[in-house]
Amino acid sequence: MSGVGFSFDLIGRDRLARRGRLTTPHGAVEMPAFMPVGTLGAVKGLTIDQVSTTGAEMILGNAYHLHLRPGDRVVESLGGLHAFTGWDGPILTDSGGFQLFSLAQMTKVTECGAIFQSHIDGSRREISPEEAVAIQQRLGCDVAMLLDHVIELPAEPQAVADAMRRTIRWAQRSRQAHDKPDQAQFAIVQGGMDEQLRLECAEALVAIGFDGYAVGGLSVGEPPEAMYRTLDFTCPALPQDAPRYLMGVGRPQDLLEAIARGIDLFDCVMPTRNGRNALVFTSNGSLRLRNRQYELDTRPLEESCPCLACRHSRGYLRHLFMAKEMLGPILLTLHNLTYYQRLMREARAAIENGRYIPFALAKFDAWKESPSQWLANQA
Predict the structure, then answer these.
(1) Of the candidates 206, 204, 232, the residue with the CA atom closest to the CA atom of residue 218
(2) pLDDT digits (tens, 9 = 90+) for 185-198
């Protein structure tokens, strides 16, 4: 990696699954890794110390949201994103390409950038690839994602190709605008579900040269098998000596499938959003705590889980939700994030021991879920 204070070490491999370590100016991240989502500088419902107790080593913020509120210059004046949030570990910020596609009203994309109305106050805004770089430099994150052109799928093949090639051109401009040596840049591979477009994008981005590479434009409603198939042909096109990040994914099943194909890094709102809605992830599958069957259940969510929620009974946790006590969402968010970090820790150990495929298939069996045919065939 070209940034000051950055390195990526591939510690081990088990078939395509990778055990890596990303070193940043704010510490190391053991990979495969999952980043809790702190879109606006906060992981919803938790203090930053509570986030740390889950085992998380890196969190995600969103430059689009922080640019709109409170403003990246405000964050900069308050000492940057680390001082602003109180998180002293690594931080990655997404540039906001997906948010421009999904949230902003009346977005118009030109070769210069995106012109849009703020979803907060309707004000007219413009973001170019260069401005996205400048915003993230002012935020002071460790890893900055490039502005990419995200389009809704399914779309006409020519529209997908045009957006992908614009993403490449924007990436070149973003690289030229980058002048903060203690901040890494990750490029984003686009191209929809089309193999040739994905490979063209990956080849062009690798030729420009970035510190890491993300697979974007997935987890937007396509079937899981379509996502896995896209990873099957995209991951081999990415450098072995750089981190690989699958954006916005996802379910525990998706994480294990993607790790088996060579992905190192993940983020998703699922553990926090589901926690706020009384849905819990466990080693034996998910629980919907509002269900009446848990009213008199004296068991913890999981016997082996060290989180604060698991000091209480399922019956008590259900009561908190039925009574609309704010402690319920807090405790289940803590549990779900702790569960995701435990899953990543177990995955890393399985790769180190050369037993990743048996580990992953055993997890699917315990969840009473079916793995992809590709994963099942690896046994």
Answers:
(1) 232
(2) 999 999 999 999 99
